[in-house]
Design a protein that fits this description.
With about 250 residues, the protein is α/β, with parallel strands linked by helices. It has a seven-stranded parallel β-sheet, sandwiched between helices. Helix 2 packs parallel to helix 3, helix 2 crosses helix 9 and helix 4 packs parallel to helix 5.
């Protein structure tokens, strides 16, 4: 990863649990100081920080709702108190599932604002320092639902599909400045976000690999995109889905 670990901080949004926590822990293990962003789950975020620090890593809490401008600035103020943000993992997300014919406007707006708008405006804010440093890594956590769709999730699917377009277009804009932009598309991962999707023992039987994907496996892919080894990879979407999209 070169000298960049000493020069910057990795900011992971929605890092109080699930994939965000796993990504924060993994990036810290790779040597990055990590800013652990959260909106409301302060206890969960503190647990993430404790996990990192217990393994000898450095972490800071970065409270802020990335679906709005004030929350983004609060988040970056906490992160940049450590160092410039040179790795950004846009992981924060929400679900408000219902059939399109019955979907209320706020159920659409909340999901788009957090999952898509939040990723764009957080990336835009991070680019200020990345462009100056001529080095940066942005990793967007999309979903296989953004690639294949799912009944009852038109808002979520639209937001996650939008992240794919954002990833590819932004990657082209900043490639010559040493900044890569990639996306991970998780399949079925057992987290708080996927609660209510069904019985996970039954769902595991439908997976080509015969089991649910672990959050740590998503984190490993995120860490790869954040590394120097991935310097020539940008604008890509990697499905870590146990074969769901094969």
């Amino acid at each position: 990863m070169g000298c960049r670990v000493r020069d910057g901080v990795a900011l992971v949004t929605g890092a109080s649990r699930g994939i965000g926590r796993a990504a924060a822990v993994r990036l810290a293990a790779d040597g990055w100081p990590v800013a652990v962003n959260y909106r409301s789950d302060a206890e969960g975020a503190k647990e993430t920080v404790a996990l990192i620090e217990s393994s000898g890593g450095q972490a800071v809490l970065a409270c802020g709702d990335v679906s709005n401008a004030d929350g983004i600035e609060e988040t970056f103020a906490a992160a940049e108190a450590v160092a410039p943000v040179l790795v950004l993992v846009n992981n924060a997300g929400v679900r408000r599932d219902t059939l399109a014919a019955m979907m209320k406007r706020d159920e659409w707006d909340d999901v788009i604002r957090t999952n898509l708008d939040g990723a764009f405006f957080t990336s835009k804010r991070a680019l200020k320092r990345m462009i100056s440093a001529r080095w940066g890594r942005i990793v967007n956590v999309t979903s296989v639902i953004g690639l294949r769709g799912n009944a009852g999730q038109t808002n979520y699917g639209a937001a996650k599909a939008g992240l794919v377009g954002l990833t590819k277009s932004l990657a082209l804009e900043v490639a010559k400045r040493g900044i890569t932009v990639n996306a991970i598309a998780p399949g079925l991962v057992k987290t708080a976000l996927t609660e209510g999707l069904g019985n996970f023992d039954d769902l595991a039987k439908t997976m080509p690999i015969g089991r649910i994907v672990e959050a740590e496996e998503i984190a490993a892919a995120i860490a790869f995109f954040a590394s120097e080894d991935a310097a020539a990879i940008t604008g890509q979407v990697l499905c870590v889905d146990g074969g769901m999209t094969a």
